[in-house]
Amino acid sequence: MNKFINLLKKEVKELVTFQLVISLLFTMVLFYFIGNIVQSEVKKIEEKQEIYVLNLDDSQESETLLNGLSYAGFKVNLLDKEDKDQAVEHAKNSEINLLLVIPEGFGQAASEFKFKEIEAYYFIRSFSMASSASAAVVDHVISEINKLISNNFLKANFPDLNPEDIKNPIKSKGFVVVNDVVAEGVAAEISNIVYSQSIFIPVILMMIIVFSSQMVLSAMAMEKQDKTLETLLTVPINRKQIAITKMVASALVGLLSAVIYMVGFRYYMSGFMGDVTASSQLNDLMQRLGLQYTSADYVILGISIFFAILCALGLTIILGVMVEDLKSAQTMVLPLTFLVMIPYFISMFSDINSLSLPVKALIMLIPFSHPFIASQNILLGNYDVVFYGIAYMLVVFIILIFICGRIFSTDRVLTMKLRFGKKGLLNR
Amino acid sequence: MDNVILKVSDLRKNYGKFEALKGVSFEVKKGEIFALIGPNGAGKTTTLRIIATLLTPTDGKVEFMGYDLKKNPDKIRQGITYLPEEAGAYKNLTGLDYLKFMASFYAEKPQDVEMYIERAKDIVGFKDRLKDKVGTYSKGMTRKLLLARALMTKPSLAILDEPTSGLDVINSLEIREVIRGFVKEGVSVLLSSHNMLEIELLSDRVAIIDKGRILEMGEPKALKEKYSAENLEEVFRRLVQ
Predict the structure, then answer these.
(1) B4-87+155-240 in CATH: which number?
(2) Which helix (H) or strand (E) holds A64?
(3) Among residues A31, A36, A63, A130, which is most buried (max CB within 10 A)?
(4) Under an 8 A CB cutoff, do A236 and B78 touch?
(5) Distance (Å, rounded) from C-alpha A338 to C-alpha A334?
(6) Which range of residues forms the domain containing residue A129?
(7) Which of B85, B88, B105 sits opposite A237 (nearest CB)?
(8) Is residue A377 part of a domain?
């Protein structure tokens, strides 16, 4: 046991280098910095934005429009200019981003259902989130005003009817069904919230797997390059322990790095997610549908992720045996990265369960697919799929450990090389 | 016969179709320095790596203190230490941590580690730098650290592959002195080198190896007399011509 602990301590010391600490701190600071910038942009959107209006009309309708803009969160400033050209020229030369020109006779025309266009001038001075968002809100306000005017017209002409019934005679009511639970709601909204809440999982999982694998491969390459592995293999210690300590140390450092990345990434994403937070009504709906992770769910997901990491590290050790130096280690991490990328992209843009059977079987064979599958299936209550995935990864891990042990107990650990030459791939 | 701690019989090693060793046989006695000499690619390192349990022989037998290499590699690892050619140490560990780490595998009780470390400190000769990271050491310092690691436990057999490779004259002399000192205390040494002059100065017996075969074996003085040569280089030249 002491020998194992000593080996483990050595492996951890070898992995936690000054460069690693600096790169982790740098990433944290970077995420924090970007997150703060994004958050301040979101705040700008939420803050009262200024809008400049040249009102050439003096009617009830134009007043309603201006009140609507104020109600939508804009600080409405009226421009005192003679005509449109003067107003545009003024806006160009000052810091005005949005100018609305309400034409003369707008109210009269609107009440008679004749076209009189409101001209909106968007002065693009940056491509920030705030500038594009304000333009969208103005469109929304105008559409609301349109609705108001048409409703008023309908009420006046058809006092016995509801204007909404005239415009939309066919009504629909949405229900979302998850397993046996039925609740009133909009499926798209539910999907958006689930997506925004679980988007972290594939990103972080990919980071951990690629990061830990890279560490193992680099450590193995260094051991071979400096011939420290040769020395280690001649000391009286079980060779399987050498392989296992490498995996455990990498998993520990990988998890620690992942936690640091997660904290940083949370800062980063909170900037984007601030405006997508579910309302209390939507939260209630999610709760009723059982679409929220419980503590037990997090434990199950954690186990699934942990086994995926172990499988990745087992595979990496086998690949690491074939590396000769740091350069070949960088090449060797590529096949593993591809294996992680496949389920990563599929889970980001599609549903693994909806794929055709052969493709689905192929994806399921990749052990790293299972945490991606688990993250959605846990929410949907399909625990069988999740547990099968964990069992499959456990079997794969045992097989990989067995292969690692076999390789380390023979001279293959020193003689196996992967060369892309005329003689083929694997040379001994 | 009781004096023999290592017996190598008809050792063969193939890498695919290439025959690296074609039936190598020799013995190492207790407290002797036995050297394998020959040019690059002669099979010296392959022989040492097999005895150090790193490579599996294709055929032949290796017995160390009565243990068969194929059946009891773990027993053999307890009695040997191996210094690979141009090896390094873990750069992120300090010299002291590296020695402690390696000592922990051989120590039966905590006091043994302290004893090994004290011995290693005497070998390296740069006690004040042992708390520095190995990555900051010169080539000579690293080699001395590795030699200290190989000898500090006083193994029954120290296998040293080109122990003075790439070192200057002073460092080489110091390392030779250290090896001699430990042999006097009962450690057997099996070493390899292509520096025949060094071997002549250091070894009790030598085996001249070329193309996977031992061409000649004996005490340096006897070999020189047999071939009427002034040094081992000349003996080697006559053997391969």
Answers:
(1) 3.40.50.300
(2) helix A60-71
(3) A31
(4) yes
(5) 6
(6) 48-167
(7) B105
(8) yes
